[in-house]
Amino acid sequence: MTPIMDKADAAALIVAARIRKQLSWADIAAELDAPKVWCVAALLGQHPLTAEQAQKVCTFLDLDDAVRESLQLQPARGIDPALQSDPTIYRFQEALAVYGPALKELIHEEFGDGIMSAINFNIDVRRRPDPDGDRVVVTFDGKFLDYRW
Question: Any idea where the Cyanate lyase C-terminal domain is (predicted)?
Fold first, then answer.
């Protein structure tokens, strides 16, 4: 018996298949009928897929059962420390380091004592044209969870 393929190895095969087939992440998300950001995160190993979703994406990308099996595993969520210095990822960390305390204060002022869920959560990325250069708009949409004693 062989071990189940590591999620990182499955993700590398998915990325390669997407590029070689000249598909966008939006194309794959549409095929899975799933939100784009969630779909990309799942295919990069951060969420498990159902058996049906895993089969559908593997058929769409011509990937084998080893990838399908890996996609259904529970992930170890988080970021590879080697990726933390990537400029795009680092800028998100920088933005939260600068604005995180202000966001916390504003959430508490508006909602009370609690947090924004990252489990009951939606996220979206879009482009907004601007004469000074296009803008990246990232929307975090999480359920408010109040602390209950």
Answer: 78-149
